[in-house]
Give the backbone structure.
Amino acid sequence: MIQNMPEVYDDTESVLNKNKSCFSYRVFPDSSNEFINITYSLETEMVLSIELVDLFGQKLKTILPKQNQQAGNHTLQIPVSDFSTGTYFLTLSSTNQTITKKIVIK
């Protein structure tokens, strides 16, 4: 069994962290050659960051630097045409939780 491997989710995932703050996070489409859309909803204000990493865990791009985000719904559209065809991971991190989702760039 692999230790310290991040959890990977394929669809919308809600997370209840230690502070009882909840967020949901969705990436669509899961494969694209132009844009990836990220939507997330926060029940309370929290610090978040979003990064794109390769299969080896190497950070390729910081999509959202670690910063305070207001409660509510948020949407980002990320151009992916500059990246090579392959499998990548988007990692959304809060103070107490990290969720990683797989994406495919065609």
